[in-house]
Amino acid sequence: MDVKGFMETSLVDWDGRIASLVFTPGCNLRCPYCYNHELVYEPGSYDNVPKESIFSFLDEHSDFIDGVVIVGGEPTVHSDLPDFCRALKERGMMVKLDTNGTRFGVLKALINENLVDYVAMDVKAPLEPEKYSRVAGVDMNGNLDGIVRSIELLKASGVDYEFRTTYVPTLMEPEDIEDIARELRGAKRYVLQKYAPLNIRVEELRGVAPPTDEEMDALVERARRYVEDVKWRGK
Amino acid sequence: METRLESKDATDLALFVKVSRGDIVEWDRQRIVESLIHETGLDRETAEKISLEVRDIVEDSGIKKYLTGPLIRELVNTQLIRHGLIDTRTDYTRLGVPIFDVHEMVVQHNKENANVPHGPEATNLSLAESIKKQYALLKVFPSEIAAGHERGDFHLHDLGMIDRPYCSGNSLEYIKKFGLNLPNALSISKPPKHPEVLLLHLIKFSAALQGSFAGAIGWDAVNLFFAPFLKGVDDKRMEQIAQMLVFEFAQQAVARGGQSIFSDLNIYWEIPKHFEGVPAIGPGGEFTGNNYEDYLPEAQRFATALFNVYKGGDGMGRPFFFPKPQLHITERLFKTEGYEEFLNLAAEVSSRMGNTYYVMDRGETAKISECCRLSFKLEEQDFEDAKTPWKMRYSAMQNATLNLPRVAYQANGDDEELFDIISERMKLMAQAHEYKRRFITRLLSMGNQGPLGLLAMTKDGEPYYRLHRATFLFGMVGLNEMVQYHTGEEMHQSREAFKFGLRTIAYMNKESERLGEEMGMRFVLEQTPAESTAYRMAKLDLAHFGDKAASVMKGSIELGEMYYTNSTYLNVRERINPIERVKKEGMFHPMIHAGSLTHIWLGEARPDPASIANFVIKTFKKTLNDQICFSPEFTSCLDCGKTVRGLA
Ligand code: SF4
Q1: Nearest CA in chain A to B622
Q2: ipTM exceeding 0.85, yes/no
């Protein structure tokens, strides 16, 4: 598994923790609002970050860094992701995985082996293949199996997690958030992310104004009918 | 009288003079003679000679009707120089400001700094300060020291306020015990009985102190000392009192030409060890019969209310710049119930507004002089003082900042030379402190009726200003550029460069101790918050050291926006990760006993408060850093543009 980017310190990617960020290349989806689309479309344009330099930074600052957040792209498309997680675990790091949840098998393996401490899984749209395909930018072929099973897995697994949805006006409606929350009923935590038009590949979305704080508050209220712990993030 | 006769001699001029005291009088050459003798001690014979020369010049000039006093004085000065009477000329100097400058200031907007208010009261202050600064450089300090400042070898801060000490740390207990009983005040208030009145006294006393100090006005353990007044106060009223306190302080700026009171509120969640067992003062200045630990619940509720005010910001939701909340982080904090939630609240303020300053009091050290966060191991005397907390008043009398990059230019890569120059400069700066001390001592000795009457009041048996506790500060600018010029690398670039930085500060620290012992004064190093000084020194060095200075200077020379890095900071524009910054900058802090601080830039993102709290706790436990604060806006201070999350 190549690493295409390393952010030494982040206070915003793992609530309550001080974390480093590892960016992996490639993704099996094509969400039009993706912030990291370069990693999805042209991962080759980035140099690899040597893993030794990452490990040596982590070793030097293990007194501050609680863990590493692995983000993409989509980390689970790499079959050797577990090895990387294992290497982090061996250095005493906690691991958080940001995933789109499509690769149920990989997620399950990571959880079974205790290689992740926190999973943030995207639930991009209500669980209807057509709607999902629209938001994810690829044809889900009528099949959301992987995603549905990942949701159930997280709910049952005992590993700490959150589900999350980036709310993009024009791409979705407030009702969609309510639908998603209903489908997540009983989940531990649900986070809405405020869309921000920065570094957006798709032309039509660039002009879309981000939702206001008040709109986000209202969405949180709707979702709270089904999930207790709901909040929104963003500027 | 001979002189009187002489003055009426037939050859005198038929002219009128507009004199400074506000009158138009007949030309009288004898006035020159008398004023020369009176003001400079010149002998009569020379004075006569000079006055005659001046008369001739005036006569030849063809001036028909009016002369002004200032013009005559300048003519006299010209003659004094001609006769080589340089010292006499200095004593005869007229201080003032060119009419062009006054016009610019009064009528035009201050273009150089749009943030500087320029209302009538503000320009009054600026004009007065410019004259007092000239006075200080000519009269308070000997010319060698004045020249050191003017050349930019070092910078003496707040010369325009030469007749005041620099900053002050105060105790609310003084007001609670003695009421508001200020010299020259027309009415006197007895010790307050209600929290709202205590609050108003606090603000008013701060405003009075602002008139007697140049810099920050700090207040220790504000929430704790308020607590005995807050028994039985319900949440609503508590919230209002907190709001009033912050808003009233913040808005004091209207009173003095837009100059905020540089106020600090020190806040503790726990009972600081030195206030345990201390009898509490309550309404009416009476001891309540309880000790401060009995008021912990009220102190904590008030602390929470204060941070809630900071969280909300002002009427527009903007952060308050003053009063600065300084939250003390101590071992005891972590042993005090409810600290997680409280720390999260303070961290939420950091995340949203950036206000909170986290002051790290490790071990037996406490930062009890809140003005410049002077930290010291509490000595026996301090524990004694803490039993009578109204006595806990501290001050740094003067702040002098050394231009370190210049030292490197002059040392030409020679270590020994470099340290020698530092010693030489520090010696001069120490002498400057000595002169300031003498000057202030003299003003204080005039007592209640003197110019520093407020500081001379003796309600508790000793003067409000405790001279024997006064500290004097050695600041520094541009350690990073000094190291860069001397070693070829900036401090973040190599271990060797960084080590040389540490060595330099250790040397300065030792020098300050040595000088202090020698001169019987308290000297400590300070991290001067000195953006304008850093700019001034950079500008002067560029003019006098050309390429040498340009090779290490930061900012843009083309745009005239060059600067040196503040104090011992690492290059502020480098994206040094915050952990490394906190650790490395913190390594200087044990040697710098005042004002040490590391800024952590948060960029555009709003972190989870718990992550910030986590960072604060680790800074306390894993580093030597004395103080940190978080700044939400990366762009507000630097011109490196937006911080884009992810792969920027
Ligand atoms: S799943 Fe994530 S990385 Fe992949 S395209 Fe969507 S937003 Fe981008």
Answers
A1: A63
A2: yes
